[in-house]
UniProtKB/TrEMBL annotation:
It comes from Streptomyces polygonati. The keyword Nucleotide-binding applies. ATP binds at G26, K27, G28, G29, V30, G31, K32, S33. The keyword Cell inner membrane does not apply. Homodimer. Belongs to the Mrp/NBP35 ATP-binding proteins family. In the C-terminal section; belongs to the Mrp/NBP35 ATP-binding proteins family. Binds and transfers iron-sulfur (Fe-S) clusters to target apoproteins. Can hydrolyze ATP. This is Iron-sulfur cluster carrier protein. One of its GO terms (molecular function) is ATP binding. Keywords: ATP-binding, Hydrolase, Iron, Iron-sulfur, Metal-binding, Nucleotide-binding.
């Protein structure tokens, strides 16, 4: 916005009542976006006003997962985020890359995009804002810390993850930036066998605990495992159909686990 001063980020102002969570993971495909949208939908169903910033440059799958078909509109010089049937307001980096053309994102571009999503989007009063970050703990985590110093970090992992590395990197960034790591979510934590009572540990066990222990050590604070979400076909289908499992099957094991985590964060 040529030459004009940058607008302030409302969530970064002292006294802001919006809780901001940056959802991070060490690598892609662990279910970071699925967790984000399900938490958002569950919180909205509990009556909270919720927004999601989809800053995952590799996936930007949040609009599809929440069934958002609308586009952002411009009113005066603010961007109005489309709402979803869940009531969650969404802005996605995919809404600004025409035809979803592949874009090579560099740190400063992503920083600028995030700044605009936070400052130039009209969010209204939010209780909770979730930021779906690209996988990998790098520049973007530092951008978040600069733009919204009070943002807390939520780490998503699988039971399998080479935990030490993630924990160390995410932890040392949090220490550097004085950010709080609110907890760890272990996703894909076993699959109930459809034919018997057994749980198939598809991705092994213990990753959530190992990441939480590593983060606790690195940060010198206690980082809890907030919940474990099993593998559930309905969770994947819900993502594909734009109906989060926390709404379509709230009492399934996955729905219950996710709603429990949402209640801790909301
Ligand atoms: P990320 O954001 O970490 O890249 P996604 O949320 O896009 O990961 O998830 C990757 C794929 O795995 C998606 O197809 C999603 O539906 C599926 N998925 C994630 N978590 C689960 C789960 N607990 N049960 C079944 N499928 C899952």
């Amino acid at each position: 916005r040529g030459g004009k001063a940058e607008r302030e980020i409302p969530f970064a102002q002292p006294g802001s009542l919006t809780r901001v969570y940056a959802v991070a993971s060490g690598k892609g495909g662990v279910g970071k976006s699925s967790v984000t949208v399900n938490l958002a939908a569950a919180m909205a169903a509990d009556g909270l006003k919720v927004g999601v910033v989809d800053a995952d440059i590799y996936g930007h799958s949040v609009p599809r997962m929440l069934g958002v078909e609308g586009r952002p509109t411009q009113v005066e010089n603010m961007i109005m985020p489309p709402s979803s049937a869940t009531g969650v307001k969404v802005i996605s980096i995919g809404m600004f890359t025409p035809g979803n053309a592949p874009v090579v994102w560099r740190g400063p571009m992503l920083h600028r995009a995030l700044q605009q999503f936070l400052a130039d989007v009209y969010w209204g009063d939010l209780d909770v804002l979730l930021l779906d970050l690209p996988p990998g703990t790098g520049d973007i985590a530092i951008s978040v810390a600069q733009l919204v110093p009070n943002a807390e970090i939520l780490v998503v992992t699988t039971p399998q993850q080479a935990a030490a590395e993630v924990a160390e990197r995410a932890g040392s960034i949090a220490v550097q930036t004085h950010q709080k790591i609110v907890g760890v979510v272990e996703n894909m934590a076993g699959m109930p066998c459809p034919h018997c009572d057994e749980i198939v540990e598809v991705f092994g066990t213990g990753g959530g605990d190992r990441v939480a222990e590593g983060l606790s050590r690195t940060t010198g604070t206690t980082v809890p495992v907030l919940g474990r979400i099993p593998i559930d076909v309905r969770l994947r289908e819900g993502g594909d159909d734009g109906r989060p499992v926390t709404l379509s099957h709230p009492d399934s094991a996955a729905g219950t686990a996710l709603r429990g985590i949402a209640a801790k964060l909301g």
